[in-house]
Specification:
InterPro entries: RecT_fam
Number of helices: 12
Biased composition (Low complexity): 270-279
Biased composition (Basic and acidic residues): 239-254
Order of helices and strands: HHHHEEHEEEEEHHHHHHH
Helix content: 40-55%
Strand content: 15-25%
Region (Disordered): 222-310
Pfam family, one: RecT
Distance between the termini: 40 Å
Length: 310
C-alpha cells in the first residue's frame, strides 16, 4: 500500500521540483516567462501527457526513463514557455532518456519570445510554384518572390523557407528538399512515419528550427531561454556538432536543478524525520518507485516513439 502511494506521489513531486526551480530562476536569474503562461498548468498538462508516453517496447516512459532526464525535459519545456496542451511540444523516449521536442507551433512560440521579434513564419515550396531568391546589398539571402498556386498543392515539395521579422529587418532561411531529407536522416528517429505522412508540416518545422538556431546564436537574449531552445533542437540529432565550451549561464539551469534534486534525495535517505524516526529504507522505496510504475501508467493513448513528430 505504501509503495502504491509513493508511485502516485513521485511524478507530482518532480513537477513541483521543476516549478520551485523556475520560481527561483525568476527571482535570481531574471527568467521571464510569457505573460499569459501558467507554468503550473503547463507542468500538470505535461504530467498527464507523460502517462501516455511509451518507449518502442511499449513500456511507460515514467517507468523506464531516469528521473534526471524527466526533470530536464520538464524544465526545458517551462523555460521556453511551452505546453503540450497547445500541441507545442511532446515527449519521446530514447533508451532510458526522456526528451522534450518542439512542434512547429512550439518553435514559433519560442522564437517569438526573443527580443525584437515581430513575426515568425515558414512555408513550403511545391513544384511549379513561382519562387525566387536573391541577395540584398549586405549579401544576405532574401526571398524576392513567392507565389504559391492552389493547383500545385499536391505537387512534390521542392523546398521550404522560414522568415523571422524583427525591428531591424527580416532574416530568411531557405532549404532545398535534399537538404531537408539530409536533416531528417540525421535525426535520432529513423524511418519516421510522420515525416512521410505529414511532410509539409515537418518540412516547415525543419527549416524553422534551422532559422531559429542561426538567429538565436547572434542574439543578445537571456542565456536561459536561448540555451533551452538550442538544447531542444540539438538533442534531436545524432550527428549534431556541439559546442564543447558553452557559456556557463547556459548550462547552469538544468545542472543546478538536477544537482539539487540529487542532494534532496540523498538528504531524505540519510536524514532523520521531525519525529525522530530514521529515514532508512526511503531510498529503497524510491528505487521501487523508479522501477515499478507499470500498473499506474500503462493505461491511456499510446504514442510510440517511432511514430512521434521529429
Amino acid at each position: 500500500m505504501n509503495n502504491q502511494v509513493a508511485q502516485q506521489q513521485k511524478p507530482t513531486k518532480l513537477t513541483d521540483l521543476v516549478l520551485d526551480r523556475v520560481k527561483q530562476m525568476q527571482d535570481t536569474q531574471d527568467l521571464s516567462l510569457p505573460k499569459n503562461y501558467n507554468a503550473s498548468n503547463a507542468l500538470n498538462a505535461a504530467f498527464l501527457e507523460l502517462q501516455k508516453v511509451q518507449d518502442r517496447n511499449h513500456r511507460p516512459a515514467l517507468e523506464v526513463c531516469s528521473h534526471d532526464s524527466i526533470v530536464k525535459s520538464l524544465l526545458d519545456m517551462t523555460l521556453q514557455g511551452l505546453s503540450p496542451a497547445k500541441d507545442q511540444c511532446y515527449f519521446i523516449v530514447y533508451g532510458k532518456e526522456l526528451q522534450m521536442q518542439r512542434s512547429y507551433f512550439g518553435t514559433v512560440a519560442a522564437v517569438k519570445r526573443l527580443d525584437g521579434v515581430k513575426k515568425v513564419r515558414a512555408e513550403v515550396v511545391h513544384e511549379k510554384d513561382d519562387f525566387e531568391i536573391g541577395a540584398n546589398e549586405d549579401m544576405e539571402l532574401v526571398v524576392k518572390r513567392f507565389v504559391p498556386k492552389f493547383e500545385n498543392q499536391d505537387n512534390q515539395i521542392i523546398g521550404a523557407f522560414a522568415m523571422i521579422k524583427t525591428d531591424e529587418g527580416t532574416d530568411f532561411t531557405v532549404m532545398t528538399k535534399k537538404e531537408i531529407d539530409q536533416s531528417w536522416a540525421q535525426t535520432r528517429q529513423k524511418n519516421n512515419k510522420v515525416q512521410q505522412n505529414f511532410s509539409q508540416e515537418m518540412a516547415k518545422r525543419t527549416v524553422l528550427n534551422r532559422a531559429a538556431k542561426m538567429f538565436i546564436n547572434t542574439s543578445d537574449d537571456s542565456d536561459l531561454l536561448t540555451g533551452a531552445i538550442n538544447d531542444t533542437t540539438s538533442n534531436e540529432y545524432d550527428d549534431e556538432r556541439r559546442d564543447v565550451t558553452p557559456v556557463e549561464e547556459e548550462k547552469q539551469s538544468t545542472d543546478e536543478l538536477l544537482e539539487g534534486f540529487q542532494k534532496s534525495q540523498e538528504a531524505k535517505a540519510k536524514g532523520v524525520s521531525n519525529n525522530g524516526n530514521s529515514n532508512e529504507g526511503k531510498e529503497e522505496a524510491s528505487e521501487e518507485v523508479a522501477d515499478g510504475q507499470t500498473e499506474l501508467f500503462s493505461r491511456g493513448t499510446i504514442k510510440p516513439a517511432d511514430e512521434a513528430d521529429s
